[in-house]
Design a protein that fits this description.
This protein is α+β, with helices and mostly antiparallel strands. It has one domain: Rossmann fold. About 35% of the residues lie in helices and about 25% in strands. Strands 1-6-5-4-2-3 form a six-stranded mixed sheet. α1 crosses α2 and α3 (about 130-140) packs across α5 (about 150-180). The longest helix has 28 residues, at about 150-180. The mean pLDDT is about 95.
Length: about 180
């Protein structure tokens, strides 16, 4: 899942190396992997891709466009080609070699990918609730201010975008749990 750490801060957060080894082992044994936000960056790094900071953080509600590849994807097939998702990241990754791009946004080319049949990386958040958003806005108010973003607007927009996001999230996560059997 997410967190304020960055993949390349493994000296400061040595457990990130352990997490990447766990991801590598799961992929090697074709076990399902779902990385969200920081988790998607860890998955990309475990697959040999670069993870790096961006000039403009993508925080708040932004449109994500799903690629044509979702037509044959086990998790995203049947989902709308475009949705407004919740974002909170300042790092992005290159698409791992051999991965299938599933979604992009105006600010971030690689928002969602699949590697093999069971490993998925989602940079955006499908799992958030209003409580999560409120906590993030309050906890990271300094980050919002530094980025010139309005936390009250992010919270207010949650009421508009949350129903559609939760519907897609529920469907995608239910399909992902089906990979576990």
């Amino acid at each position: 899942m997410g967190g304020p750490q960055s993949v390349y801060e493994d000296k400061k957060f040595p457990y990130l190396r352990d997490e990447m080894r766990l991801i590598e082992d799961a992929i090697k044994h074709e076990k399902p992997v779902l990385g969200v936000c920081l988790g998607s960056q860890l998955l990309a790094a475990a697959l040999g891709s670069s993870v790096y900071p961006v000039r403009q953080k993508e925080i708040g509600w932004h449109r994500v466009t799903l690629s044509k590849s979702i037509a044959t994807d086990r998790l995203f097939n049947g989902e709308p080609r475009s949705l407004t998702a919740f974002h909170w990241h300042g790092d992005v990754f290159d698409l791992p070699r051999g991965a299938t791009l599933l979604a992009s946004s105006a600010l971030t080319a690689n928002q969602n990918f699949r590697y093999g049949k069971t490993a998925y990386g989602l940079l955006f958040h499908l799992e958030v609730t209003l409580a999560h958003i409120n906590t993030m806005v309050e906890t990271f108010a300094d980050e919002l201010q530094a980025a010139g973003l309005n936390g009250a607007a992010i919270k207010l927009n949650a009421h508009t975008h949350m129903p559609a996001l939760q519907k897609v999230g529920s469907e995608v996560f239910a399909r992902w749990t089906g990979l576990l059997t």
